[in-house]
Design goal:
Blueprint lengths: L5 E6 L5 H15 L8 E3 L8 E8 L6 H4 L4 E9 L1 E3 L8 E4 L7 H10 L2 E6 L7 E2 L2 E2 H10 L9 E16 L4 E9 L5 H12 L3 E11 L2 E2 L4 E2 L2
Parallel strand pairs: 1-14, 3-12
Antiparallel strand pairs: 1-3, 2-3, 4-11, 4-12, 5-6, 7-10, 8-9, 10-11, 12-13
Length: 226
Amino acid sequence: MEYPEILLIDKPSGMTSFDVIRALRKQYTAANNGEKAPKIGHAGTLDPLATGLMVLGTGKGTKKLTELVKLDKEYIAEIRVGEKRSTGDLEGEVLEQVEVAELDESQVRDELRGMVGVLTLPVSAYSAIKKDGVPMYKRARKAEEKGEVVTDVPIRDMEVLQAEFLALACLDTYCVVTVRFYVRSGVYIRSLAEEFGKRMGYPATLQHLRRTKVGEFVVEDARALE
């Protein structure tokens, strides 16, 4: 078994980005009579619940990751409107619920158009971004154990290039808006989901996320991890 210098993987839900790398290392070692796997790195993490395209560098390809991580990215996001969670996605505890019987599609489209451009938004307390050298999610989980909530989170400029409305479905107590976001590197989709909710006048959280494109790399060309 040999890996190309740039490897595209379609990450399944329920795994961290490092879980993917760990699994690839095990596959390589098993297929090569116990030989140690080459160095493997990635050009941008995906949250455990998210699926889709991961761009990895193997061996000499890891030297290319510094440039690849800067590439624009495309996501398909399902935003649950009417619910706020501690992590900004369905992994977290419900902090607020507001019954949403229906949403006006024209307003949804208008608010999404208004999100195109540079937005100054807080980063999720459960993100991998580091503060004083410590990942935010580690701070948040430590605070959680003490019954506390991290409120001192970094604020970042995030540039949205496109925000395309795809679908709207309203259930008994909440609505789900599906959006295609095309963004610059450094954008946190959980932050966009919460911002969209605020613009609609409701709490919101990310229900599902799939990364479909990184630069010119597309998920259709990616391999299943198996």
